[in-house]
Amino acid sequence: MPATATDAPIWFVTGCSSGFGRQLCDVVLEHGARLVATARDVSSLSHLPDDESRVLVAPLDVTNRASVDAAVAAAQERFGRIDVLVNNAGYGLFGGIEDTPDAEVRRQFDVNVHGLLDVTRAVLPVLRAQKSGYILNLSSVAGQVARASTGFYAASKFAVEALSEALREEVEPLGIKVTLIEPSGFKTDFHGRSLAAPSAEGADYAQTAAAGRDRVRGMAGNQAGDARKAAELMWQVAQLSDPPFRLPMGEMAVDLIRAKLAAVAADVDRCEPSARSADGDGTLVPLT
Q1: Which domain holds residue 259?
Q2: Does 216 lie in the same domain as 266?
Q3: Does a structural domain hold residue 1?
Q4: 278 belongs to a structural domain
Q5: Is pTM, for the whole model, over 0.85?
Q6: N or C terminus: fewer CB in 10 A for the chain?
Q7: Considering just the CA atoms, what is the radius of gyration of the chain in Å?
């Protein structure tokens, strides 16, 4: 039974100007929920309905805590609550570990990690007071698997995964759920406008870091994933009473994550006798 205007859940979504965020705005509204749509440039959200009872458009720069606090306060003032937080804002920095400038690395973490943290910390008091809520954190298949050129982007998403694991244990007793979204390649701006790279890399990395970055760029427009379907899956997972903690999306995500888990299991199996013997006073079993 569809929710009425006064009891429809409130979705607070970051990074709504394009990609998953833009698609999710449409899906949320089509399902009858209410929406707080945020972006650095709110002119990019002019396509949303001009309906104050259902939609709040708020400027939000995840790297500016005052901006974050203002958007959360505006959501509370308009709707009185927040039911679902979607930490979607982010971008990808692709470059070699040695040659990518420090300033670019720090900005990657400021947006993808510290930005997500600041938004989450601003919204958590609302969810705790309600004793309910759901947080969807946009990770990536790169939150599980890192390849040449993806090191800094993957590191930011590995951080999101670790923070989400800890957060889940901290907030589940308070009635708040957490899910990680782990997409692979989808038709969004990620492989174009949302991809950053260092201006130059050493010749020694031409066949590794530089080639890896170029492969990622070459996916633009050719990704297998349908962003609209991804947004629909995010809506569906939020309707489950017992949602999965991880939601991989796309065939590549499923295949790469399964391969990573198998490789980790193989390493653990190989090292297990030596690893276990490192405890206690017994004889250390040599590695083989």
Answers
A1: 254-288
A2: no
A3: no
A4: yes
A5: yes
A6: N
A7: 21
3 domain-assigned: no
Query: In this predicted model, what pLDDT tens digit does every residue of 62-85 receive, in sequence order?
Result: 999 999 999 999 999 999 999 999
- Name the residue type at position 35: L
Q: How many domains does the chain have?
A: 2
Which residue has tokens 């003032």? Answer: 77
Note whether 136 and 261 are same-domain residues. no
Q: Give the DSSP letter string of 120-140.
A: HHHHHHHHHHHT-EEEEEE--
Classify residue 119 as exposed, middle or buried by CB count within 10 Å of its CB (0-12, 13-18, 19+): buried
Type of residue at 193 = R
How many CA atoms, within 13 angstroms, populate the side-chain half-sphere of residue 80?
A: 5
Q: How far apart are CA 208 and CA 132, in angstroms?
A: 46
CA-based torsion, 233, 20, 113, 13: positive or negative: negative
285, 271 contact by CB (below 8 A): no
**Calpha distance 11→34 (Å, rounded):** 6
- For the chain, give the longest Cα–Cα distance: 72
Distance between CA atoms of 9 and 28, rounded to whole angstroms?
9
Amino acid at position 219, single letter? M
Residues 197 and 280 in one domain: no
- End-to-end Cα distance, the chain: 61
Q: What is the CATH number of the domain that holds 88?
A: 3.40.50.720
Does 43 reside within a domain?
yes
The residues that are catalytic are 139, 153, 157
Amino acid at 284: L
List phi, psi (to 5°) of 252: -60, -40
* Helices (H), ranges, 94-196: 102-109, 116-130, 151-171
Question: Do 33 and 15 share a domain, yes or no?
Answer: yes
Tens of pLDDT, residue by residue over 181-234, are 999 876 556 545 556 666 667 778 887 877 777 777 766 666 667 889 999 999
Q: Which residue has the tokens 């399964």?
A: 258
